[in-house]
């Protein structure tokens, strides 16, 4: 059995990423018992999803990366999608490079992924050129997310904002409600559905059922992050019951 140590950088009020990502990889352990995943987290203070608090949280990245470096992780994932996307198109590359530099200073040469970059990679791996998205954000932040995705060459054909500004309240949203929410989107031209463009909004129990109902690939920030983590570790992206992206049949390769 091989242990893979995964470092997570999460907002202090995030309750979901440390639930959904381990749940995904525990399901993979059941299917592929040769690999085991161990998690280590560092937190950055943020309670409300506002531009001001997101900027203040981003300023804590170096400290969080230093703390994780002491655990000598095999990979580091920074998991606040909107905090990165709100800084402008392509910022996930800058954020990943900043964390990588901190790790290298501590002689840690682990790959770094972000939920923002992972979502783009997941969409690309599915071959999708047009997507619809569901977010918990207020409409101005959802527009920033849509613009970020479109800057990467993917058309956002429709977007639904649930408009929940309190980050803890986002974590309390019932993921089963997404099975109805997605029906409010115009999906006729979509190649894929991003059921949760947020690592704090729970969606995992709805991913496979919605994909089965809709007949289109369904992914989330969490499943896309799991996809990137697995591929960066050199492991097949196979998690049963978590949508086509994690079916182990993808031909697309994640990009930087």
UniProtKB/TrEMBL annotation:
Top-rank taxon: Bacteria
Active site (record annotation): 80, 198
Keywords, in A-Z order: Isomerase
InterPro entries in the record: Iso_Racemase_Enz_sf, MaiA/AMDase, Maleate_isomerase
Binding site for substrate: 14, 80-82, 137, 167, 199-200
Modified residues (S-(2-succinyl)cysteine): 80
Enzyme Commission numbers on file: 5.2.1.1
Catalytic activity: maleate = fumarate
Note: Reaction is initiated by nucleophilic attack of cysteine at the double bond, yielding a covalent succinylcysteine-like intermediate.
Family: Belongs to the maleate isomerase family.
UniProt function note: Catalyzes cis-trans isomerization of the C2-C3 double bond in maleate to yield fumarate.
Name of the protein this chain belongs to: Maleate isomerase
Name of the gene: maiA
